[in-house]
Amino acid sequence: MRQIRSLSLRLKLTLGYALIFSLSVLLGAAGVYLSASSTLQHSLDTTLSETASVAQASIEHQQGRYVFASGLKPSGDVYVDLLDQRGTRLAFAGTGVDDLPLPPTQGLRTAKARRYLTQQVQGGLFLRVSRSSDILSEVTEMLGRILAIGSLGMILLACAAGYFLADRALRPMDAVARLASRITESGNYTQRVPAVVGTDEMAVLTNTVNRLLDHMAGTIEREQSFARIAAHELRTPLTAIKGRLDLALERPRDNATYQKTLEVMRSRVYALVSLSEGLLELASTDAPLKLQRVELGSVVLDVVERLEEAFKARGKHLELDVGENWVSAELPGLQHLVQNLVENALKHGGGQVVVQVAPGLLAVHDGGMGPDPGEWERLLRPFERGSTAHTVPGNGLGLALVQSLARRWHAVITPSWSEKGFTVELHWPP
């Protein structure tokens, strides 16, 4: 069993195919042999029966003894004799002498390389017809040899054909294995398996592997780009904190200076914490998808309740047009998405913000000018901020997180500019 497990898949498939084919061929050959033997035997028995019928009609009683009519001339090696109940030959016809020392018993039998048919006739006598079975034995023996040699040849041919077919079928798998090995050694995820034409299992396998590699390459590229940008964004506030600390420790200072320095560093630390949380939220969009039915209206009400004081502090008015709306999303991500959109409206919009929830729709209208339309695509990338937003605190991750979550849920984010202000809409598929 261990040796079989160590064989290659090609050999296992070939051996399995050869075993099944061999059994089929051997069973077929045995069937042909038995059928042919039975047919030849039946033909011989039919010949004996026909000869016995002719011989029975040719029995004559002349001068106190039984003889066969002169017209009875059995052909070839057929021998006919008439026996009494003790087996004594009373008359015979045919070439040669058949001296089978057997009592007359009705029916068919084979003995001494001859086939015998014995029938009881009038007067309690027995008519026995025989013929040599050597030809039958030779024919069946030759047929057996032909079937054996032919079966062996077919089995060997089947093994070769099975290995060829297994090799041809497994080539795409070999290509996948070689590609995986090359990718492991080189780390280059741009390589692909040669496409297989058709719709069979191997074509599905190669196409699936290539799609997987496309997804992996895109994910790795995004992660590498994200890591580079994150490192750059984190370096700036850390450098500022380090400079503040070095400056504060350069020489003794009074308590007021130390207090001011600590307050500045605390604000920078808060910015770092906010940036880290945004990075974690953005990184979580690559986690396995766990969609569920979420009531969007209740999520919006919870988020707005948390931001109510911030709106009052800025002197802005928040208006809600919320109805019941169930969407396919992830609850934590949906909370972050709504909060980012409402916070952006709070920071960059006008004096009145309207949040609308309708079937398959979330819309946030901020009453402001919004970003430059030409900058919108750029703002959907991490750490990108509008040209007029540098005076407002932020890290440029809000819209990137919204875009990633929308794409993850198969939703579409759409901006619009009008005389009444800027609006961001999020549409879920029906």
UniProtKB/TrEMBL annotation:
Family annotation (Pfam families): HAMP, HATPase_c, HisKA
UniProt KW keywords: Kinase, Membrane, Phosphoprotein, Transferase, Transmembrane, Transmembrane helix, Two-component regulatory system
Subcellular location: Membrane
UniProt xrefs under SMART domains: HAMP, HATPase_c, HisKA
EC number: 2.7.13.3
InterPro entries linked: HAMP_dom, HATPase_C_sf, HATPase_dom, His_kinase_dom, HisK_dim/P_dom, HisK_dim/P_sf, TCS_sensor_his_kinase
Predominant location category: membrane
Catalytic activity: ATP + protein L-histidine = ADP + protein N-phospho-L-histidine
Domain HAMP: 167-221
UniProt-recorded Gene Ontology molecular function terms: phosphorelay sensor kinase activity
Top-rank EC class of the record's enzyme: transferase
Listed transmembrane segments: 12-34, 146-166
Segments forming domain Histidine kinase: 229-430
One GO CC term on file: membrane
Designated name of the protein: histidine kinase
